[in-house]
Protein backbone atom coordinates (compact mmCIF):
# COMPACT_ATOMS: atom_id res chain seq x y z
CA UNK A 1 0.00 0.00 0.00
CA UNK A 2 2.95 2.30 0.30
CA UNK A 3 3.96 2.42 -3.31
CA UNK A 4 2.77 3.04 -6.79
CA UNK A 5 -0.54 4.05 -8.27
CA UNK A 6 -2.64 1.22 -6.88
CA UNK A 7 -6.15 1.54 -5.54
CA UNK A 8 -5.09 4.61 -3.64
CA UNK A 9 -3.51 6.28 -6.66
CA UNK A 10 -4.36 9.87 -7.48
CA UNK A 11 -4.27 9.98 -11.30
CA UNK A 12 -1.59 12.58 -11.75
CA UNK A 13 1.26 11.91 -9.44
CA UNK A 14 2.47 14.42 -6.92
CA UNK A 15 5.16 16.73 -8.16
CA UNK A 16 8.54 16.03 -6.72
CA UNK A 17 8.80 17.98 -3.47
CA UNK A 18 11.70 20.36 -3.22
CA UNK A 19 14.37 20.17 -0.62
CA UNK A 20 14.07 22.01 2.63
CA UNK A 21 14.60 25.72 2.21
CA UNK A 22 12.95 25.86 -1.23
CA UNK A 23 9.44 27.01 -1.80
CA UNK A 24 6.97 24.14 -2.02
CA UNK A 25 4.52 24.05 -4.92
CA UNK A 26 1.01 25.26 -4.29
CA UNK A 27 -1.51 22.92 -5.88
CA UNK A 28 -5.15 23.58 -6.59
CA UNK A 29 -8.04 21.71 -8.13
CA UNK A 30 -7.20 23.02 -11.63
CA UNK A 31 -3.48 23.30 -12.05
CA UNK A 32 -1.30 25.67 -10.04
CA UNK A 33 -3.35 28.61 -8.75
CA UNK A 34 -0.75 31.29 -8.21
CA UNK A 35 -1.82 34.75 -6.96
CA UNK A 36 -3.38 36.77 -9.78
CA UNK A 37 -4.43 40.34 -10.19
CA UNK A 38 -7.98 39.43 -9.08
CA UNK A 39 -6.72 38.01 -5.79
CA UNK A 40 -7.28 40.78 -3.18
CA UNK A 41 -4.82 39.08 -0.82
CA UNK A 42 -1.98 38.61 -3.32
CA UNK A 43 0.00 41.65 -2.19
CA UNK A 44 -1.19 41.67 1.41
CA UNK A 45 0.27 40.10 4.49
CA UNK A 46 -2.91 38.10 5.09
CA UNK A 47 -3.00 34.72 6.88
CA UNK A 48 -2.25 31.74 4.67
CA UNK A 49 -5.57 30.09 5.51
CA UNK A 50 -7.44 33.16 4.24
CA UNK A 51 -5.51 33.11 0.97
CA UNK A 52 -6.19 29.37 0.72
CA UNK A 53 -9.96 29.88 1.11
CA UNK A 54 -10.05 32.67 -1.46
CA UNK A 55 -8.17 30.69 -4.10
CA UNK A 56 -10.16 27.46 -3.72
CA UNK A 57 -13.65 28.64 -2.78
CA UNK A 58 -16.21 27.88 -5.48
CA UNK A 59 -19.96 28.29 -5.89
CA UNK A 60 -20.60 24.61 -5.12
CA UNK A 61 -18.80 24.98 -1.81
CA UNK A 62 -20.99 27.91 -0.83
CA UNK A 63 -24.17 26.10 -1.85
CA UNK A 64 -23.18 22.96 0.06
CA UNK A 65 -22.38 24.98 3.16
CA UNK A 66 -25.70 26.81 3.00
CA UNK A 67 -27.50 23.50 2.57
CA UNK A 68 -25.81 22.05 5.65
CA UNK A 69 -26.64 25.15 7.69
CA UNK A 70 -30.30 25.18 6.63
CA UNK A 71 -30.73 21.41 6.94
CA UNK A 72 -31.73 21.26 10.64
CA UNK A 73 -34.34 23.99 10.13
CA UNK A 74 -36.23 21.95 7.52
CA UNK A 75 -35.63 18.46 8.94
CA UNK A 76 -37.14 16.95 12.06
CA UNK A 77 -35.08 16.80 15.28
CA UNK A 78 -34.81 13.02 14.82
CA UNK A 79 -33.32 13.34 11.32
CA UNK A 80 -31.09 16.21 12.46
CA UNK A 81 -29.63 14.23 15.35
CA UNK A 82 -29.84 10.62 14.16
CA UNK A 83 -28.83 11.15 10.54
CA UNK A 84 -27.13 14.53 10.24
CA UNK A 85 -25.02 14.63 13.40
CA UNK A 86 -24.14 10.93 13.35
CA UNK A 87 -23.08 11.06 9.69
CA UNK A 88 -20.76 14.00 10.30
CA UNK A 89 -19.19 12.38 13.38
CA UNK A 90 -18.59 9.06 11.63
CA UNK A 91 -17.34 10.91 8.56
CA UNK A 92 -14.75 12.68 10.68
CA UNK A 93 -13.33 9.34 11.88
CA UNK A 94 -13.40 7.99 8.31
CA UNK A 95 -11.68 11.20 7.15
CA UNK A 96 -8.66 10.22 9.24
CA UNK A 97 -8.48 6.94 7.32
CA UNK A 98 -8.89 8.77 4.01
CA UNK A 99 -6.00 11.07 4.94
CA UNK A 100 -3.71 8.12 5.66
CA UNK A 101 -4.74 6.09 2.63
CA UNK A 102 -5.34 8.79 0.04
CA UNK A 103 -2.33 10.98 0.78
CA UNK A 104 0.00 8.53 2.49
CA UNK A 105 -0.85 5.19 0.87
CA UNK A 106 -1.34 3.58 4.30
CA UNK A 107 -4.54 1.69 5.12
CA UNK A 108 -5.16 1.54 8.87
CA UNK A 109 -7.93 -0.47 10.50
CA UNK A 110 -7.21 1.11 13.89
CA UNK A 111 -8.87 4.50 13.38
CA UNK A 112 -11.93 3.58 15.42
CA UNK A 113 -9.50 2.33 18.06
CA UNK A 114 -7.93 5.80 18.24
CA UNK A 115 -11.43 7.27 18.47
CA UNK A 116 -12.20 4.80 21.26
CA UNK A 117 -9.08 5.82 23.17
CA UNK A 118 -10.29 9.42 23.14
CA UNK A 119 -13.81 8.38 24.07
CA UNK A 120 -12.71 6.21 26.97
CA UNK A 121 -10.42 8.97 28.22
CA UNK A 122 -13.34 11.39 28.28
CA UNK A 123 -15.49 8.85 30.14
CA UNK A 124 -12.79 7.89 32.66
CA UNK A 125 -11.46 11.35 33.47
CA UNK A 126 -14.77 13.20 33.11
CA UNK A 127 -18.22 12.54 34.52
CA UNK A 128 -20.62 9.69 33.77
CA UNK A 129 -23.16 7.48 35.46
CA UNK A 130 -20.35 5.17 36.58
CA UNK A 131 -18.51 5.57 39.87
CA UNK A 132 -15.17 4.85 38.16
CA UNK A 133 -15.17 8.27 36.47
CA UNK A 134 -12.88 10.80 38.13
CA UNK A 135 -15.10 13.81 37.50
CA UNK A 136 -12.45 16.23 36.21
CA UNK A 137 -13.45 19.50 34.58
CA UNK A 138 -14.12 19.25 30.86
CA UNK A 139 -11.49 21.93 30.14
CA UNK A 140 -8.85 19.52 31.43
CA UNK A 141 -10.43 16.30 30.16
CA UNK A 142 -10.64 17.26 26.48
CA UNK A 143 -6.95 18.23 26.02
CA UNK A 144 -5.95 15.04 27.85
CA UNK A 145 -8.22 12.95 25.60
CA UNK A 146 -6.81 14.51 22.43
CA UNK A 147 -3.20 14.17 23.60
CA UNK A 148 -3.55 10.52 24.65
CA UNK A 149 -5.34 9.60 21.41
CA UNK A 150 -2.70 11.31 19.28
CA UNK A 151 0.07 9.51 21.19
CA UNK A 152 -1.74 6.21 20.66
CA UNK A 153 -2.11 6.94 16.96
CA UNK A 154 1.56 7.86 16.64
CA UNK A 155 2.51 4.63 18.44
CA UNK A 156 0.34 2.61 16.06
CA UNK A 157 2.00 4.40 13.16
CA UNK A 158 5.49 3.84 14.54
CA UNK A 159 4.82 0.11 14.79
CA UNK A 160 3.16 -0.27 11.38
CA UNK A 161 4.89 2.09 8.92
CA UNK A 162 7.88 -0.20 8.53
CA UNK A 163 5.63 -2.75 6.81
CA UNK A 164 3.72 -2.62 3.56
CA UNK A 165 0.46 -3.83 2.08
CA UNK A 166 -1.45 -6.55 3.87
CA UNK A 167 1.04 -6.57 6.74
CA UNK A 168 0.20 -2.96 7.64
CA UNK A 169 -3.50 -3.79 7.60
CA UNK A 170 -3.00 -6.86 9.80
CA UNK A 171 -0.83 -5.01 12.33
CA UNK A 172 -3.34 -2.20 12.74
CA UNK A 173 -6.18 -4.73 12.96
CA UNK A 174 -4.29 -6.68 15.62
CA UNK A 175 -3.77 -3.55 17.72
CA UNK A 176 -7.45 -2.67 17.37
CA UNK A 177 -8.52 -6.13 18.51
CA UNK A 178 -6.02 -6.01 21.38
CA UNK A 179 -7.50 -2.75 22.67
CA UNK A 180 -11.01 -4.22 22.36
CA UNK A 181 -10.13 -7.16 24.60
CA UNK A 182 -8.28 -4.89 27.01
CA UNK A 183 -11.42 -2.81 27.48
CA UNK A 184 -13.62 -5.91 27.63
CA UNK A 185 -11.65 -7.76 30.29
CA UNK A 186 -10.48 -4.83 32.44
CA UNK A 187 -13.02 -3.82 35.09
CA UNK A 188 -10.89 -1.59 37.30
CA UNK A 189 -10.28 1.03 34.59
CA UNK A 190 -12.62 0.35 31.64
CA UNK A 191 -15.51 -1.23 33.61
CA UNK A 192 -15.51 -4.32 31.42
CA UNK A 193 -18.36 -5.08 29.03
CA UNK A 194 -20.66 -2.54 30.70
CA UNK A 195 -18.44 0.39 29.80
CA UNK A 196 -19.50 3.89 30.80
CA UNK A 197 -23.06 5.17 30.66
CA UNK A 198 -24.44 8.73 30.68
CA UNK A 199 -21.37 10.36 29.14
CA UNK A 200 -22.84 13.66 28.02
CA UNK A 201 -21.25 16.86 26.67
CA UNK A 202 -20.75 19.63 29.23
CA UNK A 203 -23.18 22.52 29.53
CA UNK A 204 -21.32 25.58 28.24
CA UNK A 205 -22.89 29.04 27.87
CA UNK A 206 -26.08 27.55 29.35
CA UNK A 207 -26.57 25.46 26.20
CA UNK A 208 -27.53 21.78 26.28
CA UNK A 209 -25.12 20.59 23.63
CA UNK A 210 -26.77 17.19 23.35
CA UNK A 211 -29.99 18.73 22.07
CA UNK A 212 -30.40 18.02 18.33
CA UNK A 213 -29.85 21.55 17.03
CA UNK A 214 -26.83 22.60 19.17
CA UNK A 215 -25.16 19.21 18.82
CA UNK A 216 -25.62 19.24 15.04
CA UNK A 217 -23.96 22.63 14.70
CA UNK A 218 -21.16 21.55 17.05
CA UNK A 219 -20.44 18.48 14.92
CA UNK A 220 -20.82 20.49 11.70
CA UNK A 221 -18.30 23.09 12.86
CA UNK A 222 -15.70 20.50 13.87
CA UNK A 223 -16.26 18.43 10.71
CA UNK A 224 -15.86 21.50 8.53
CA UNK A 225 -12.66 22.38 10.39
CA UNK A 226 -11.33 18.86 9.83
CA UNK A 227 -12.23 18.95 6.13
CA UNK A 228 -10.53 22.31 5.57
CA UNK A 229 -7.50 21.20 7.59
CA UNK A 230 -7.03 18.13 5.38
CA UNK A 231 -7.43 20.21 2.21
CA UNK A 232 -4.89 22.71 3.50
CA UNK A 233 -2.36 20.09 4.66
CA UNK A 234 -2.57 18.33 1.28
CA UNK A 235 -1.21 21.48 -0.38
CA UNK A 236 1.28 22.34 2.34
CA UNK A 237 4.94 21.22 2.05
CA UNK A 238 4.30 18.35 4.46
CA UNK A 239 1.34 17.10 2.44
CA UNK A 240 3.23 17.36 -0.86
CA UNK A 241 6.13 15.40 0.63
CA UNK A 242 3.71 12.80 2.01
CA UNK A 243 2.18 12.28 -1.43
CA UNK A 244 5.65 11.93 -2.90
CA UNK A 245 6.42 9.26 -0.30
CA UNK A 246 3.16 7.54 -1.19
CA UNK A 247 4.16 7.33 -4.86
CA UNK A 248 7.87 6.57 -4.55
CA UNK A 249 9.29 6.20 -1.03
CA UNK A 250 12.72 5.12 -2.23
CA UNK A 251 13.19 8.20 -4.36
CA UNK A 252 12.00 10.48 -1.56
CA UNK A 253 14.43 8.81 0.81
CA UNK A 254 17.23 9.36 -1.70
CA UNK A 255 16.26 13.05 -1.86
CA UNK A 256 16.87 13.33 1.87
CA UNK A 257 13.34 13.02 3.28
CA UNK A 258 12.81 10.96 6.42
CA UNK A 259 10.13 8.57 5.17
CA UNK A 260 9.41 6.99 8.55
CA UNK A 261 9.08 10.33 10.31
CA UNK A 262 6.65 11.67 7.69
CA UNK A 263 4.50 8.57 7.94
CA UNK A 264 4.40 8.65 11.74
CA UNK A 265 3.54 12.35 11.60
CA UNK A 266 0.69 11.50 9.21
CA UNK A 267 -0.63 9.02 11.78
CA UNK A 268 -0.48 11.76 14.41
CA UNK A 269 -2.47 14.15 12.19
CA UNK A 270 -5.01 11.41 11.50
CA UNK A 271 -5.13 10.76 15.24
CA UNK A 272 -6.38 14.30 15.87
CA UNK A 273 -9.25 13.80 13.41
CA UNK A 274 -10.16 10.38 14.80
CA UNK A 275 -9.97 11.63 18.39
CA UNK A 276 -12.36 14.53 17.75
CA UNK A 277 -14.74 12.17 15.96
CA UNK A 278 -14.50 9.67 18.82
CA UNK A 279 -15.38 12.30 21.44
CA UNK A 280 -18.36 13.42 19.36
CA UNK A 281 -19.56 9.83 18.96
CA UNK A 282 -19.37 9.24 22.72
CA UNK A 283 -21.41 12.38 23.32
CA UNK A 284 -23.84 11.34 20.59
CA UNK A 285 -24.42 7.86 22.03
CA UNK A 286 -24.13 8.97 25.65
CA UNK A 287 -22.02 5.91 26.38
CA UNK A 288 -18.99 3.90 25.34
CA UNK A 289 -18.55 0.15 25.65
CA UNK A 290 -16.19 -2.43 24.17
CA UNK A 291 -18.83 -2.94 21.46
CA UNK A 292 -18.17 0.64 20.32
CA UNK A 293 -14.63 -0.34 19.32
CA UNK A 294 -15.23 -3.93 18.27
CA UNK A 295 -14.08 -5.55 15.06
CA UNK A 296 -17.31 -4.69 13.28
CA UNK A 297 -16.73 -0.97 13.80
CA UNK A 298 -13.10 -1.24 12.72
CA UNK A 299 -14.37 -2.64 9.42
CA UNK A 300 -17.30 -0.20 9.20
CA UNK A 301 -14.95 2.80 9.12
CA UNK A 302 -13.12 1.24 6.17
CA UNK A 303 -16.44 0.56 4.44
CA UNK A 304 -17.57 4.17 4.99
CA UNK A 305 -14.33 5.57 3.58
CA UNK A 306 -14.42 3.32 0.51
CA UNK A 307 -18.13 3.92 -0.15
CA UNK A 308 -17.64 7.65 -0.53
CA UNK A 309 -14.26 7.52 -2.22
CA UNK A 310 -10.67 7.67 -1.07
CA UNK A 311 -9.56 10.43 -3.43
CA UNK A 312 -11.25 13.45 -1.87
CA UNK A 313 -11.86 14.54 1.74
CA UNK A 314 -15.60 14.86 1.14
CA UNK A 315 -15.82 11.15 0.30
CA UNK A 316 -15.89 9.87 3.91
CA UNK A 317 -18.79 12.17 4.78
CA UNK A 318 -20.75 10.99 1.75
CA UNK A 319 -20.04 7.36 2.65
CA UNK A 320 -21.07 8.00 6.25
CA UNK A 321 -24.37 9.49 5.09
CA UNK A 322 -25.15 6.39 2.99
CA UNK A 323 -24.13 4.12 5.87
CA UNK A 324 -26.28 5.94 8.44
CA UNK A 325 -29.30 6.09 6.13
CA UNK A 326 -29.10 2.34 5.59
CA UNK A 327 -28.52 1.74 9.28
CA UNK A 328 -31.50 3.92 10.25
CA UNK A 329 -34.10 2.90 7.69
CA UNK A 330 -33.05 -0.54 6.38
CA UNK A 331 -34.19 -2.20 9.61
CA UNK A 332 -37.74 -1.16 8.71
CA UNK A 333 -37.53 -3.41 5.65
CA UNK A 334 -35.35 -6.28 6.86
CA UNK A 335 -34.37 -7.79 10.17
CA UNK A 336 -31.84 -5.92 12.26
CA UNK A 337 -29.56 -8.95 12.17
CA UNK A 338 -29.40 -8.76 8.37
CA UNK A 339 -28.25 -5.15 8.24
CA UNK A 340 -24.64 -6.15 7.58
CA UNK A 341 -25.86 -8.12 4.56
CA UNK A 342 -27.37 -4.95 3.08
CA UNK A 343 -24.23 -2.93 3.79
CA UNK A 344 -22.11 -5.66 2.25
CA UNK A 345 -24.29 -5.76 -0.87
CA UNK A 346 -24.13 -1.99 -1.34
CA UNK A 347 -20.38 -2.00 -0.71
CA UNK A 348 -19.84 -4.81 -3.24
CA UNK A 349 -21.96 -3.10 -5.89
CA UNK A 350 -20.16 0.23 -5.55
CA UNK A 351 -16.70 -1.36 -5.58
CA UNK A 352 -17.54 -3.44 -8.66
CA UNK A 353 -18.92 -0.50 -10.67
CA UNK A 354 -16.59 2.17 -9.29
CA UNK A 355 -13.42 1.30 -7.35
CA UNK A 356 -13.18 5.00 -6.42
CA UNK A 357 -16.52 4.98 -4.61
CA UNK A 358 -19.56 7.17 -5.20
CA UNK A 359 -17.45 10.19 -6.10
CA UNK A 360 -15.60 8.17 -8.71
CA UNK A 361 -18.90 6.90 -10.10
CA UNK A 362 -20.25 10.44 -10.34
CA UNK A 363 -17.04 11.63 -12.04
CA UNK A 364 -17.26 8.86 -14.65
CA UNK A 365 -20.95 9.56 -15.35
CA UNK A 366 -20.27 13.30 -15.68
CA UNK A 367 -17.33 12.68 -18.03
CA UNK A 368 -19.50 10.40 -20.17
CA UNK A 369 -22.26 13.00 -20.35
CA UNK A 370 -19.73 15.65 -21.36
CA UNK A 371 -18.33 13.42 -24.09
CA UNK A 372 -21.81 12.67 -25.42
CA UNK A 373 -22.63 16.39 -25.35
CA UNK A 374 -19.46 17.28 -27.27
CA UNK A 375 -20.15 14.58 -29.85
CA UNK A 376 -23.71 15.80 -30.32
CA UNK A 377 -22.60 19.41 -30.74
CA UNK A 378 -19.93 18.44 -33.28
CA UNK A 379 -22.50 16.56 -35.37
CA UNK A 380 -24.71 19.63 -35.73
From TrEMBL:
UniProt topology in membrane: Multi-pass membrane protein
Keyword Transmembrane appears in the UniProt entry: yes
InterPro entries for the chain: ABC_transp_permease, LivM-like
The keyword Glycoprotein belongs to this UniProt entry's keyword annotation: no
Native organism: Caenimonas sedimenti
One Gene Ontology term of the molecular function aspect: branched-chain amino acid transmembrane transporter activity
Protein name: Branched-chain amino acid ABC transporter permease
Region (Disordered) location: 1-41
Intracellular or extracellular location(s): Cell membrane
Key words, A-Z: Cell membrane, Membrane, Transmembrane, Transmembrane helix
Top-level taxon of origin: Bacteria
A family per Pfam: BPD_transp_2
Amino acid sequence: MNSGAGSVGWGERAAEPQRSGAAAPSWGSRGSPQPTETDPYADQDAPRWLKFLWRHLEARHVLTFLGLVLFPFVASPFITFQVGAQSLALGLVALSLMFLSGYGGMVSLAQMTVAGVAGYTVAILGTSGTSLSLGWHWGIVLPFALAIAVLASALIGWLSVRTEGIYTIMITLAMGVAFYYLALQNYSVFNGFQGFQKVYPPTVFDVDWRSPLPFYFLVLTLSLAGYLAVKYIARAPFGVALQGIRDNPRRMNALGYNVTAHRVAAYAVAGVLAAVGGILLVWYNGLITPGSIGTSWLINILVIAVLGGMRHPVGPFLGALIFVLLQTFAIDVIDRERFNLVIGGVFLAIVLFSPDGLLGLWASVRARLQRNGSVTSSMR
